[in-house]
Amino acid sequence: MGISLLDVIGLEKKFQNFQLGPMDLKVEQGMVVGLVGANGSGKSTLFKLLMNILRKDNGQILLFGKNVEKNEIEVKQKVGFAGDLLDPYGHLTIEELAGMIAYWYPTWNKEQFNHLIKKYNINTEEKFGKCSKGTKKKVEFIFSLSHDSALLLLDEPTAGVDIVSQRKMKEDLILFMEEGERSIIIATHNADEINQLCDDIVVLQAGKIIYSFNKDEVYENWAKLWVSRVPDELANHPNVILFSTNTPVQVVTNNAHKIERVLQSKQVSISHSQRLTMEEVFEYLIET
Amino acid sequence: MFQDAFWLAKKELKHHWSAIALSLLFTVFVGGSTGMLLADSAVKMFEDHATSYNCFLLDLIFLGLTPAFATIFMAKPYLTLQTIKEDPYSKRMAFLRSLPIPVNVLAFSRTIVMFIILLIMSSAFYLSIVFVLIGMSSTFYDFISTGEFLIFIFIWFGYALAVGGINPFIEYGTNGKVLHLFPFIFFGLFLIFILNFYNYTGQGVVEMILYYTKNAGWPLAILSLVMGGFGCYIWNKLLTIRLKKRDYV
Predict the structure, then answer these.
(1) B98 to chain A: which residues are within 8 Å by CB?
(2) So what's the pLDDT on residue A287?
(3) Which one of A188, A214, A240 terminates a domain?
(4) Among A108, A220, A151, which Cα is nearest to A6's?
(5) A214, A245, A274 - which closes a domain
(6) Are A19 and A151 found together in one domain?
C-alpha cells in the first residue's frame, strides 16, 4: 500500500435536485485516477468539494492526510486545480491573472510558467475573457502546473483543446508524474486520455461511484461474447453488463473468464469473443 | 494578514479603475446637485424658515445614496439584470476560494476595498458640494463654519460607513438576486423611516443634522465615526463567517 494523498470517507452533499455520495475514494501517491461519468454526474461537484469551494454535508476529506477544512491553506498550496473558475476575471490579461495567482503560492515557478506559456503559444497580453475555450483550458492547465503541487485536480482539461496541444498536455502530465511521488485526478470524456494516462478509473453516475477499477482489469476482463443462447442464470448475473437475445445473441461482461465458465457449464457455445475498447466500456458503464 | 489583504485590495481596485472612474463622475454630478439643495436647507434652518426646497430629495441623497458610495455602483454587476442569473461576485469569490488564501484575508480585503471606495467617492461628493457652494456664492458659509461643515461631513461619513459596510456582505455573502433586491428593500425602509420622521419632527433629517452640527459639534462626529467603524467591523465579521460557510456553486 502506498501513501494516500486523498482519502474521501462517506462524503455527502445534497442539493435541491441532486445528491453527491455517500462516497468513498482513495488516491495513492503515484496514481493517476480518471474520473468518468455523463454530464451532471457530479465530477465538477466532487472537485469543488475537494477544494472546499462547496461545503460537504457529511463525511470527511483528507488531503495529504490532513483535514481540508482545518488545514486549508497548507493543503491548497500543494494542489494544482483547473476547474473553469477563471471566467469572472475575464477582464484581466493572462499576465495579470498569473500575477494574481502566483502571489499565493510560495513555490510558484516563474520559469516553468514562462516555459509552458511559450510551449502552448499563449499570448499573455490577451485578456482571458477574449480567449477561445481551448486557450482558456490551456491557461488554467498551465497555472495548475506552475507551482510545485503534489496533486493535480483537472476538470476536463482538454475539452475544446486542439489535437497538438492535447498531445502536449498529455506529455506534461506524464512528465509531472515522473518528477516525483505525485498524483492526478482527471475528469475526462476522452478514452485516449484514460488509456494513456490513468491507472485507476472511477465511474460516477448520478452522484455515486458505480464502478472503480484498475485500467488493466478492463483490458483483461471486459469482453463481448457472441453466444448460441443466453441461459437464465446469466440474465441477472452480476458480471453481465448487457445481453441481447436477438440475433446476433451477445453478452457483454466485465469478467470474461467467469462468464465463459458459466457458459461452458450450460453447454452454450461461444462463436467468438472480443475484448472491449475503453471507449466501449465507458459507453456501457454510463448507459447501463 | 494585513499585508496580504492590502495586496489583494490594491489588485481589485486596479482591475476596476474604469468602473471606479464612472462611479466617481456620477458622484461628482450628484455632489453638485446636493450642494444646491444643501444651500437652501441651511437658509431654511438658520435664516428664512419659509424657504422652500426638495427636502425629501436631500434626505434621500444623504440617507439613501451616501452608503452606496461604499461600492463601485457603476460596475457591470450593478448595471445589468444578468447579475441575477450569473451572480458574478459569487463566481469571483469561488475563484479566490480555490486559491490558498485565508478566508479572513478575503473578507478583510473586501472591507478595505469598500472603505477606500467610500473614501474616494465621499471625498468627491463633499468636494463637489464645497465647489458648488463656493461657485454659487451661497450664504451657506455665513451659517456654517468650515469646522462645522467638517463635523457635518464626518457625521455622514460615519453613517455611510456603518450602513455601506453591508455592501461587501451583499456582494460576496449573498447572490445576484439579493444584490438587485436589496436597494428596493432599503428604499422601502427609508420611506417608512422618513415619513415617520417628517410626521414626528416636522423637519428633514439633513436639516436636523445641520442643527446638531452646530449644537453638538465634534462629539457627535466622533460618535458617528466610532459607530461607522463598529458597523464596519461587525459586517466584516459576518462576511468572514458567511464566506466560510457558503457554497460557491
Answers:
(1) 51, 53, 76, 81, 83, 85
(2) 67
(3) A214
(4) A151
(5) A214
(6) yes
Place of cell 445576484: B176
Q: Which residues of A touch B (CB under 8 A)?
A: 15, 48, 51-55, 72-74, 76-77, 81, 83, 85-89, 91-92, 96, 99-101, 103-105
Residues A60 and A158 in one domain: yes
Q: How much is the pTM? A: 0.86
CA distances from A117 to A172, B40, B200 (A): 13, 62, 68
Q: Is B169 helix (H, G, I), strand (E, B) or coil?
A: helix
Which pLDDT score is estimated for B214? 83
Q: Is the same domain home to A177 and A245?
A: no
CATH number at residue A22: 3.40.50.300
Model confidence pLDDT, tens digit, residues B98-113: 999 999 999 999 999 9
pLDDT (tens digit per residue) in B68-80: 999 998 888 888 8
Same-domain pairing of A234 and A171: no
Provide the strand spans (E) within chain A: 4-14, 19-28, 32-37, 58-63, 66-67, 79-82, 151-155, 183-187, 200-205, 208-214, 223-227, 240-244, 250-253, 270-275
Would the CB atoms of A104 and B100 count as touching at under 8 Å? Answer: yes
Least CB-CB distance to B98: which of A55, A85, A91?
A85
Chain B positions touching A77 (Cβ under 8 A) are: 100
C-alpha cell at A86: 477563471
Domain that holds residue A118: 4-214
Contact B7 A51 (CB under 8 A): no
**Cβ contact A85–B247 (<8 Å):** no
The ipTM estimated for the assembled molecules is 0.87
Across chain A, mean pLDDT equals 90
Where helices occur in chain B by DSSP H, the ranges are 2-15, 17-46, 55-59, 76-79, 82-86, 88-98, 103-135, 140-143, 146-164, 166-173, 176-201, 205-215, 218-245
Q: What is the mean pLDDT of chain B?
A: 89
B242 touches A: beta carbon within 8 Å? no
The mean pLDDT value for A146-167 works out to 92
Q: Are residues A47 and A139 in the same domain?
A: yes
Instruction: For chain A, say whether B32 makes contact (Cβ under 8 Å).
Output: no
Is A186 strand, coil or helix?
strand
